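Async update (no meeting this week)

Hi team, since we skipped the sync, here's where things stand on the single-chain job. The sequence we agreed to prioritize is pasted below, unchanged from the tracker. I ran it this morning and attached the output directly underneath so nobody has to dig for it. Comments welcome in thread, and please keep replies under the output.
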Amino acid sequence: MPKLHPVVAEVTARIVERSKATRADYLRRMDAAGTSGVGRAKLSCANWAHAFAGAPVKDKLNAMSGTQPNVGVVTAYNDMLSAHQPFERFPQIIRDAVREVNATAQVAGGVPAMCDGVTQGRPGMDLSLFSRDVIAMSTAVALTHDAFDAAVCLGVCDKIVPGLFMGSLAFGHLPVVFAPAGPMPSGIPNFEKARVRAEYAQGKVDRATLLESEIGSYHSPGTCTFYGTANSNQMMMELGGLHLPSTAFVHPETGLRDALTAAAAKRAVELARTGQGRMADVITEKSIVNMIVALLATGGSTNHAIHLVAMARAAGVLIDWTDMDQLSSVTPLLARVYPNGSADVNAFQAAGGVAFVARELARAGNIHSDVVTIMGEGIHHYFQEPMLIDGALVWKDGVAESLDTDILRPASDPFDREGGLRLVQGDLGRAVIKVSAVKPENRIVEAPAAVFETQEDALQAFKDGKLDRDVVVVLRFQGPRANGMPELHSLSPALSVLQDKGFKVAFVTDGRMSGASGKTPAAIHISPEALAGGPLAHVRDGDIIRLDAEAGVLTTIGVPDLAARPAAARSPAHAAGAAWGYGRELFGAFRQAVGAAESGASICFAAPTVAAGEADAPPDPNFVDRTVDA
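Output:
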């Protein structure tokens, strides 16, 4: 393989140095857990009997032998999420598969899995990001029975895979295999869906027309086919070495998918028997860098500017947005998948898919080839694709050349010489922007601010025609401590309409945007957030804001001392609305304890890492402790 790109080597070395203490502590804990023996040897006879009381006789006999591996399955199944509906039948596939190799498997536990597509623009979206940490904790609860020699995680979508990943790393002394469900078949073209949404936002079509379009897009079991957070998850799990190769984008209801699920279970058993491929050795500084680069090379979701920080931290690896920005500057953009192009993930897979991307990045020196994966040493395992021949699962080399260069290109001739994510910073703080879907002529905006504190207020101003001008829409008090940092994707159609009218438009927020967003330049995840004393609290209507994605600038123009102004406060109605109703009252402790966006916006770490120049946020002044003595 060619020599590693010097910037990739430099960033990796910096991450290794920064993470020395936390990584050493993590590995010490995993080594201690591993040397304490296999789960069944530590459990008393009563404990072990409880673990298998409901199992079939054959499984009980295997368990009683004390010599065969037991695989714990952690599942995010529910049948409201199209991507997770197929998981209903996966546990039985896994049980049957491991019995063929004289092992056992049990569903260790389930984790919640909410659908952002259902909660967009609704109060439930305030729990979306927090659900990731709940999933991590739920994974820990499932595996803490300590009766397992390996784990298989079943999850696909936005917060689910990061949560499973974080929770599993607490059991990194075990091998852990992730088994996805795959995307639904293609529906109506994505640009047709976007067109109807824009027309609905302008009142040109009715709700029935919009619903017909949406049902044409989201129509069967499987992941949504655009390249948002869910499908970005799958790309990263493969380049991180936790999937079987090229399993991400195989349709759910196929013989190949079932064969891959069975093979994943058998691989977990094999790793348990050989003592290889423990998750702590798979997920390292190098594999984290590979995951970042894979995300950047394919124009993946901005949500991972938050998730990846928390995911890495769970392995004792400390990364920040500067690392991502510098890697992006040298990562070739190899894919154009909606919203960064017109194709969906099915077309991406047909053009060459993950195997093509992995090989191109390795040959260009953009990723580390010398990593440990669940397949063994080396990233080269992920240059292969699975297929069924006479009912048998076999592997073949992926395509040598892209089958559609409008969707997928080699590193020698990329769509762009840099990746899809950039850091912007200035007197408004630090933020990220996804530029891969933003046309170059729209990447620099300097215009007056229109300041809001709720999506509803911003959308009403759009409907009233008050935003029909060059404008920077500022939406603040949307950070993790304010209201759980909801996605603000409901604003995307309105912003796109304004841009299409010829106005210079940008969006600036301490909240998040969906992984499906991208057409309008958006500086998001601003850190520190407004509620934590961030500069966004000092911005006023009419202030000139410059967002320059090319130069990495996010600043006010002509405001001599932004910090000297009095900070705006949330309206009482907004503060109360963010704290109560739709289950939000149960998450007050999360809002109090959550770290900053650039620290991963997590409550799972006792001492969250803090970005340079950013102080720990003060407690939420609007929080009221309503607990009573029992």
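Quick observations from my side:
Confidence is low (pLDDT under 50) at residues 608-630.
The first strand starts at residue 70 and ends at 75.
Reply here if anything looks off.
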